[in-house]
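Assess this:
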Amino acid sequence: MVTIHDVAARAKVSTATVSRVLSGSASVSSRSRRKVLAAVKALGYRPNAIATSLRRRRTFTIGVLVPDITNPFFSGVARTANRVLFSQGLAAFVVDTDHSVDVERRFAHLFEGQRVDGFLIISNDASPFFFDELASRVPAIVLVDRPRSDRLDSVRVDNHTGALQAVAHLAGRGRRKIAIVSGPKELLSARERLEGFRTALRLHNLPEVPEYIAVTGFSVEQGVAATRRLLELTDPPDAIFAGNNTLGIGAVSAIKALGRRIPDDVALMIFDDLYLAEAADPPLTVIAQPVTDIGATAANLLLEHLKQPSDWHPKEVLLPPQLILRRST
Protein backbone atom coordinates (compact mmCIF):
# COMPACT_ATOMS: atom_id res chain seq x y z
CA MET A 1 0.00 0.00 0.00
CA VAL A 2 1.37 3.38 -1.01
CA THR A 3 1.79 5.70 1.99
CA ILE A 4 2.23 9.41 2.45
CA HIS A 5 5.91 8.70 3.13
CA ASP A 6 6.25 7.15 -0.35
CA VAL A 7 4.70 10.25 -1.90
CA ALA A 8 7.04 12.51 0.08
CA ALA A 9 10.11 10.50 -0.94
CA ARG A 10 9.21 10.57 -4.64
CA ALA A 11 8.40 14.28 -4.59
CA LYS A 12 11.49 15.02 -2.46
CA VAL A 13 9.49 17.00 0.07
CA SER A 14 8.48 16.46 3.70
CA THR A 15 5.42 14.46 4.72
CA ALA A 16 4.06 17.70 6.24
CA THR A 17 4.18 19.33 2.80
CA VAL A 18 2.34 16.36 1.27
CA SER A 19 -0.28 16.62 4.01
CA ARG A 20 -0.77 20.34 3.37
CA VAL A 21 -1.18 19.78 -0.37
CA LEU A 22 -3.72 16.99 0.12
CA SER A 23 -5.71 19.06 2.62
CA GLY A 24 -5.88 21.99 0.21
CA SER A 25 -3.74 24.30 2.31
CA ALA A 26 -2.60 27.50 0.60
CA SER A 27 0.73 27.59 2.48
CA VAL A 28 2.57 25.51 -0.14
CA SER A 29 4.59 26.80 -3.09
CA SER A 30 3.24 26.09 -6.56
CA ARG A 31 6.42 24.13 -7.38
CA SER A 32 6.05 21.84 -4.36
CA ARG A 33 2.33 21.40 -5.06
CA ARG A 34 3.06 20.28 -8.65
CA LYS A 35 5.71 17.80 -7.43
CA VAL A 36 3.38 16.31 -4.81
CA LEU A 37 0.44 15.97 -7.20
CA ALA A 38 2.67 14.37 -9.83
CA ALA A 39 3.91 11.87 -7.23
CA VAL A 40 0.37 11.12 -6.09
CA LYS A 41 -0.66 10.40 -9.69
CA ALA A 42 2.41 8.32 -10.50
CA LEU A 43 2.12 6.16 -7.38
CA GLY A 44 -1.68 5.91 -7.41
CA TYR A 45 -1.82 7.14 -3.83
CA ARG A 46 -5.18 7.10 -2.02
CA PRO A 47 -5.51 8.81 1.38
CA ASN A 48 -6.27 6.53 4.32
CA ALA A 49 -9.93 7.26 5.04
CA ILE A 50 -9.73 6.02 8.64
CA ALA A 51 -6.70 8.15 9.41
CA THR A 52 -8.35 11.17 7.80
CA SER A 53 -11.51 10.59 9.83
CA LEU A 54 -9.55 10.37 13.08
CA ARG A 55 -7.61 13.51 12.27
CA ARG A 56 -10.62 15.58 11.25
CA ARG A 57 -13.06 13.93 13.69
CA ARG A 58 -15.43 13.25 10.81
CA THR A 59 -16.22 10.15 8.74
CA PHE A 60 -17.76 11.99 5.75
CA THR A 61 -20.63 9.49 5.79
CA ILE A 62 -24.38 9.96 6.14
CA GLY A 63 -26.94 7.34 7.16
CA VAL A 64 -30.13 7.45 5.05
CA LEU A 65 -33.07 5.44 6.42
CA VAL A 66 -36.17 4.88 4.26
CA PRO A 67 -39.22 2.64 4.91
CA ASP A 68 -39.36 1.04 1.45
CA ILE A 69 -36.72 1.57 -1.24
CA THR A 70 -39.09 0.17 -3.91
CA ASN A 71 -41.46 3.08 -3.31
CA PRO A 72 -40.63 5.68 -6.01
CA PHE A 73 -41.08 8.58 -3.59
CA PHE A 74 -38.61 7.21 -1.04
CA SER A 75 -36.07 6.06 -3.62
CA GLY A 76 -36.33 9.36 -5.49
CA VAL A 77 -35.64 11.37 -2.34
CA ALA A 78 -32.71 9.13 -1.41
CA ARG A 79 -31.23 9.24 -4.90
CA THR A 80 -31.31 13.03 -5.12
CA ALA A 81 -29.94 13.46 -1.60
CA ASN A 82 -27.12 11.06 -2.42
CA ARG A 83 -26.14 13.10 -5.49
CA VAL A 84 -25.99 16.32 -3.48
CA LEU A 85 -24.02 14.74 -0.65
CA PHE A 86 -21.60 13.01 -3.04
CA SER A 87 -20.91 16.30 -4.80
CA GLN A 88 -19.72 17.63 -1.44
CA GLY A 89 -17.49 14.66 -0.66
CA LEU A 90 -19.86 12.70 1.55
CA ALA A 91 -20.97 9.09 1.10
CA ALA A 92 -24.60 8.15 1.76
CA PHE A 93 -25.41 4.69 3.09
CA VAL A 94 -29.05 3.95 2.25
CA VAL A 95 -30.98 1.36 4.29
CA ASP A 96 -34.46 -0.04 3.67
CA THR A 97 -36.10 -0.41 7.09
CA ASP A 98 -39.06 -2.38 5.71
CA HIS A 99 -41.63 -0.23 7.56
CA SER A 100 -40.25 -1.53 10.87
CA VAL A 101 -39.56 0.80 13.80
CA ASP A 102 -37.35 -1.88 15.36
CA VAL A 103 -35.22 -2.28 12.21
CA GLU A 104 -35.00 1.50 11.88
CA ARG A 105 -33.67 1.90 15.42
CA ARG A 106 -31.21 -0.97 15.08
CA PHE A 107 -29.68 0.60 11.96
CA ALA A 108 -29.65 4.01 13.62
CA HIS A 109 -27.61 2.58 16.50
CA LEU A 110 -25.35 0.75 14.04
CA PHE A 111 -24.66 3.93 12.07
CA GLU A 112 -24.13 5.86 15.28
CA GLY A 113 -21.49 3.30 16.24
CA GLN A 114 -19.83 3.88 12.85
CA ARG A 115 -19.69 7.60 13.73
CA VAL A 116 -21.69 8.88 10.77
CA ASP A 117 -21.70 12.65 10.45
CA GLY A 118 -25.48 12.77 10.23
CA PHE A 119 -28.76 11.18 9.23
CA LEU A 120 -31.48 11.73 6.65
CA ILE A 121 -34.51 9.83 7.90
CA ILE A 122 -37.98 8.99 6.66
CA SER A 123 -39.09 7.45 9.92
CA ASN A 124 -41.56 4.61 10.47
CA ASP A 125 -42.35 6.09 13.88
CA ALA A 126 -45.01 8.77 14.19
CA SER A 127 -43.11 10.52 17.00
CA PRO A 128 -39.57 11.92 16.81
CA PHE A 129 -38.64 11.12 20.43
CA PHE A 130 -36.08 8.43 19.57
CA PHE A 131 -34.29 10.69 17.08
CA ASP A 132 -34.61 13.68 19.41
CA GLU A 133 -32.51 11.72 21.89
CA LEU A 134 -30.13 10.55 19.15
CA ALA A 135 -29.60 14.17 18.10
CA SER A 136 -27.72 14.80 21.34
CA ARG A 137 -24.97 12.45 20.09
CA VAL A 138 -25.05 12.87 16.28
CA PRO A 139 -23.94 16.15 14.65
CA ALA A 140 -26.98 16.61 12.38
CA ILE A 141 -30.30 14.90 11.67
CA VAL A 142 -32.89 15.90 9.05
CA LEU A 143 -36.32 14.28 8.91
CA VAL A 144 -38.07 13.92 5.55
CA ASP A 145 -41.86 13.72 5.24
CA ARG A 146 -42.12 13.99 9.03
CA PRO A 147 -42.63 16.96 11.40
CA ARG A 148 -39.68 18.79 12.92
CA SER A 149 -39.07 18.91 16.65
CA ASP A 150 -37.11 21.15 19.00
CA ARG A 151 -33.91 19.37 17.87
CA LEU A 152 -34.65 18.04 14.39
CA ASP A 153 -34.93 19.71 10.99
CA SER A 154 -37.67 18.65 8.60
CA VAL A 155 -38.42 18.83 4.88
CA ARG A 156 -41.84 17.81 3.61
CA VAL A 157 -44.62 18.64 1.19
CA ASP A 158 -47.72 20.68 2.04
CA ASN A 159 -50.07 17.71 2.39
CA HIS A 160 -53.09 19.74 3.43
CA THR A 161 -52.95 21.97 0.35
CA GLY A 162 -52.48 18.92 -1.89
CA ALA A 163 -55.65 17.31 -0.54
CA LEU A 164 -57.57 20.57 -1.02
CA GLN A 165 -56.43 20.66 -4.65
CA ALA A 166 -57.47 17.05 -5.20
CA VAL A 167 -61.02 17.46 -3.92
CA ALA A 168 -61.46 20.84 -5.64
CA HIS A 169 -60.54 19.23 -8.95
CA LEU A 170 -62.87 16.26 -8.47
CA ALA A 171 -65.73 18.53 -7.39
CA GLY A 172 -65.09 20.73 -10.40
CA ARG A 173 -65.54 17.67 -12.60
CA GLY A 174 -68.99 17.11 -11.10
CA ARG A 175 -68.11 14.34 -8.67
CA ARG A 176 -70.35 14.43 -5.59
CA LYS A 177 -69.60 11.14 -3.83
CA ILE A 178 -65.90 11.33 -3.11
CA ALA A 179 -64.10 8.70 -1.04
CA ILE A 180 -60.56 8.52 0.30
CA VAL A 181 -58.22 5.59 0.78
CA SER A 182 -55.93 6.96 3.47
CA GLY A 183 -52.73 5.78 5.11
CA PRO A 184 -52.47 5.29 8.90
CA LYS A 185 -53.48 8.29 11.01
CA GLU A 186 -50.40 7.86 13.18
CA LEU A 187 -48.25 9.24 10.35
CA LEU A 188 -48.39 12.99 9.89
CA SER A 189 -48.49 12.86 6.09
CA ALA A 190 -51.53 10.58 6.05
CA ARG A 191 -53.25 12.52 8.81
CA GLU A 192 -52.75 15.88 7.08
CA ARG A 193 -54.05 14.51 3.77
CA LEU A 194 -57.15 13.15 5.50
CA GLU A 195 -57.72 16.43 7.33
CA GLY A 196 -57.31 18.35 4.07
CA PHE A 197 -59.77 15.99 2.39
CA ARG A 198 -62.39 16.60 5.08
CA THR A 199 -61.87 20.36 4.98
CA ALA A 200 -62.26 20.37 1.20
CA LEU A 201 -65.53 18.44 1.39
CA ARG A 202 -66.96 21.15 3.65
CA LEU A 203 -65.65 23.93 1.41
CA HIS A 204 -67.43 22.42 -1.60
CA ASN A 205 -70.62 21.53 0.28
CA LEU A 206 -70.04 17.83 -0.27
CA PRO A 207 -71.22 15.18 2.21
CA GLU A 208 -68.70 13.39 4.42
CA VAL A 209 -69.89 9.79 4.33
CA PRO A 210 -68.22 7.66 7.04
CA GLU A 211 -68.23 4.60 4.77
CA TYR A 212 -66.27 6.60 2.19
CA ILE A 213 -63.30 7.09 4.52
CA ALA A 214 -61.06 4.02 4.36
CA VAL A 215 -58.04 4.22 6.69
CA THR A 216 -55.48 1.50 6.13
CA GLY A 217 -51.73 0.87 5.74
CA PHE A 218 -49.55 2.12 2.90
CA SER A 219 -49.17 -1.13 0.90
CA VAL A 220 -50.51 -2.00 -2.56
CA GLU A 221 -52.45 -4.96 -1.09
CA GLN A 222 -54.13 -2.70 1.47
CA GLY A 223 -55.03 -0.29 -1.32
CA VAL A 224 -56.64 -3.13 -3.26
CA ALA A 225 -58.67 -4.31 -0.27
CA ALA A 226 -59.83 -0.82 0.76
CA THR A 227 -60.85 0.15 -2.78
CA ARG A 228 -62.72 -3.10 -3.26
CA ARG A 229 -64.70 -2.47 -0.06
CA LEU A 230 -65.63 1.02 -1.25
CA LEU A 231 -66.81 -0.14 -4.67
CA GLU A 232 -68.84 -2.99 -3.22
CA LEU A 233 -70.93 -0.64 -1.08
CA THR A 234 -74.65 -0.44 -1.90
CA ASP A 235 -74.08 3.21 -2.90
CA PRO A 236 -70.44 3.30 -4.07
CA PRO A 237 -68.45 6.52 -4.53
CA ASP A 238 -68.05 8.12 -7.95
CA ALA A 239 -64.50 9.26 -7.17
CA ILE A 240 -61.62 7.95 -5.07
CA PHE A 241 -58.68 9.92 -3.71
CA ALA A 242 -55.76 7.54 -2.97
CA GLY A 243 -53.50 8.77 -0.17
CA ASN A 244 -50.17 7.77 -1.77
CA ASN A 245 -48.67 6.01 -4.78
CA THR A 246 -48.84 2.44 -3.46
CA LEU A 247 -52.47 2.88 -2.42
CA GLY A 248 -53.10 4.35 -5.87
CA ILE A 249 -51.63 1.29 -7.58
CA GLY A 250 -53.86 -0.87 -5.42
CA ALA A 251 -56.88 1.25 -6.31
CA VAL A 252 -56.24 0.88 -10.05
CA SER A 253 -55.94 -2.90 -9.66
CA ALA A 254 -59.16 -3.19 -7.66
CA ILE A 255 -61.18 -0.96 -9.98
CA LYS A 256 -60.15 -2.92 -13.04
CA ALA A 257 -60.58 -6.30 -11.31
CA LEU A 258 -64.19 -5.38 -10.55
CA GLY A 259 -64.81 -4.44 -14.17
CA ARG A 260 -65.28 -0.72 -13.45
CA ARG A 261 -64.10 1.92 -15.89
CA ILE A 262 -61.86 4.87 -15.02
CA PRO A 263 -63.11 7.62 -15.05
CA ASP A 264 -66.57 6.69 -16.42
CA ASP A 265 -67.66 4.64 -13.41
CA VAL A 266 -65.23 6.04 -10.85
CA ALA A 267 -62.69 8.84 -11.11
CA LEU A 268 -59.29 8.28 -9.53
CA MET A 269 -56.93 10.86 -8.06
CA ILE A 270 -53.60 9.86 -6.44
CA PHE A 271 -51.37 11.74 -4.02
CA ASP A 272 -47.89 11.09 -5.51
CA ASP A 273 -46.90 10.78 -9.11
CA LEU A 274 -46.23 7.26 -10.36
CA TYR A 275 -43.65 5.76 -12.67
CA LEU A 276 -45.38 5.37 -16.06
CA ALA A 277 -48.50 7.15 -14.71
CA GLU A 278 -48.73 9.00 -18.02
CA ALA A 279 -48.59 5.71 -19.91
CA ALA A 280 -51.29 4.02 -17.80
CA ASP A 281 -54.72 3.31 -19.27
CA PRO A 282 -56.08 5.87 -18.69
CA PRO A 283 -53.21 8.22 -17.75
CA LEU A 284 -53.49 9.02 -14.04
CA THR A 285 -54.23 12.43 -12.55
CA VAL A 286 -52.02 13.04 -9.51
CA ILE A 287 -50.97 15.45 -6.83
CA ALA A 288 -47.22 15.26 -7.37
CA GLN A 289 -44.70 15.76 -4.61
CA PRO A 290 -41.55 17.67 -5.66
CA VAL A 291 -39.36 14.62 -5.01
CA THR A 292 -36.15 16.12 -6.40
CA ASP A 293 -36.62 19.35 -4.45
CA ILE A 294 -37.34 17.43 -1.25
CA GLY A 295 -34.20 15.30 -1.56
CA ALA A 296 -31.96 18.21 -2.52
CA THR A 297 -33.37 20.51 0.17
CA ALA A 298 -32.94 17.85 2.85
CA ALA A 299 -29.32 17.19 1.83
CA ASN A 300 -28.45 20.88 1.67
CA LEU A 301 -30.08 21.49 5.05
CA LEU A 302 -27.94 18.70 6.50
CA LEU A 303 -24.78 20.16 4.96
CA GLU A 304 -25.67 23.61 6.29
CA HIS A 305 -26.21 22.15 9.75
CA LEU A 306 -22.83 20.37 9.67
CA LYS A 307 -21.07 23.64 8.85
CA GLN A 308 -22.46 25.46 11.89
CA PRO A 309 -23.39 22.84 14.51
CA SER A 310 -22.94 25.14 17.52
CA ASP A 311 -25.30 27.84 16.29
CA TRP A 312 -28.21 25.94 14.80
CA HIS A 313 -31.95 26.37 15.19
CA PRO A 314 -34.10 23.53 13.76
CA LYS A 315 -35.95 24.44 10.59
CA GLU A 316 -39.01 23.10 8.81
CA VAL A 317 -39.21 23.50 5.04
CA LEU A 318 -42.68 23.04 3.54
CA LEU A 319 -42.74 22.59 -0.26
CA PRO A 320 -45.81 22.97 -2.50
CA PRO A 321 -47.35 20.00 -4.35
CA GLN A 322 -48.38 20.13 -8.01
CA LEU A 323 -51.66 19.03 -9.59
CA ILE A 324 -50.92 17.13 -12.80
CA LEU A 325 -54.03 16.67 -14.91
CA ARG A 326 -54.41 13.50 -16.94
CA ARG A 327 -57.45 11.45 -17.89
CA SER A 328 -58.33 9.39 -14.79
CA THR A 329 -60.59 12.16 -13.47
Notes: The chain has a mean pLDDT of 91. The two ends are 63 Å apart (CA to CA). Residues 159-288 form a domain with the Rossmann fold fold (CATH 3.40.50.2300). The first helix runs from residue 4 to 11.
